[in-house]
Structures are given as structure tokens and as C-alpha cells.
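Bench notes, afternoon.
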Amino acid sequence: MMLTLEKMSVNYGPIKAVRNIDISVAAGEIVTLLGPNGAGKSSTLKAIMGLHPAASGRVLFEGQPITGMATEKIVRLGMTLTPEGRHIFSGLTVEENLKLGAASQKDRIQVEETRERVFVLFPILKERLTQNAGTLSGGEQQQLAIARSLMSAPRLLLLDEPSLGLAPQIVDQIFSLIADLRQKGLTILLVEQNAEMSLEISDRGYVFSNGQIELEGSRDALRSSKDIASTYLGMEKHSHHE
């Protein structure tokens, strides 16, 4: 397994955000974490990346325990997170944002190769290299946020709510981009409110409710389960756009 969570719990003060969860992601998969807001999905990604400490349990990346490891070190091992809300440096150019994404990489030749691959995936960013990131549209900013994560040459990409607040046709583009990334050999763990679209491109999913995993299964099993659609994903039938 590329990523394994064993009995992981995450607390925010007295609040138990995530309780005793087991998750695994195999190389080459797209796995989606589903469930209503506040169910513990984003907290799980933050704990995997060392941005918030796990209260208990273990995280293994390619068989190596990384629980409590510094985020920078985890990035160097080959895992990175594109956080919710398109965290880009809006006062800097597209080019400068991409350079910052590559900060953990020492091999200049590899950085150049990664950059060229990023431009193949995101031609619009190549056109906008010298533009300030803040002047890009929402969809372009989301592309930049993902592109910046890819500059660290991860083998596993964690994506938190990539479609949030984007117009429907842009959401389509972002999802086909995620599917493309997997074709190019990337493994992806996705947190997404848009259950239908995320299951379409995923192999497997885990459904969270109140900090625990209620259900897990293949894409088809989850899509065909009436319980899931009504109980956990009902609210996501109408996704919220800005």
C-alpha cells in the first residue's frame, strides 16, 4: 500500500474530529473521502500531512511510519496536499508560485522536467506565466494550486475540495484533469463534496459521518447503494457554487 492509516484519531481541543479510522490507498488509485461538511475529511488530510497532529494511531507512507513527521519532510518523501480554497500567492506571478512549489526539490534538471510536464497539463498557465496569480479566474487559480503541488514531484497527491465554488463547466475540467493526472501515474486521495462527480473518476471511496467511517467500497458499490445517496450524500446533489 502506498498510504495506510491505522486506527487514526484527530482531536481539536476537546472535539474528537476523527475517531479510529482505517484507510488505505494503493499505488495508481484515486480514492475519495465523502460525507457531509464537518465529518472529518479535511482533518484527516491535515493529519496525514503533519499539519495537525494525530491524537493516536499510525500513518504509513510506502511502508514507512510518518506519524508526527514534519510536513516539509513528508513532501520530500513524495506526498503533497493541495488545500481547500486555492491557497496561492495572489501577489506573486504564476511563475513565482510554481517556483515556490518546487522549493523542496534540489535537482534542478528534475524541476525543469516537472515544469514542462505541468505546462502540458495546464497550457493556460504557460500563457499566463508573468501574470499575477490574483488576476486569474477561479478555475485558473485552482489549476495553479494543483500545478504548484505537482512541482514537488509527488507520487501521492492529496486534494481537498478541488471543485469548491467553481462554475459547473469548470468543475468538469478540474475532474477530467484529475483523471489525466492518474493516467500519468499519480496516485490521488481526494476529499470532495461533489459525490457524483468524484465517484465517477474514483476507484474506491470511504463515507465519513461524525468523524468515523460509516461505509467503504468500490465506486460501483457506493454509487449503487441507495442508503449512501440518501443518507450521506443527499445534501451534495446540489453542490454549492459561489
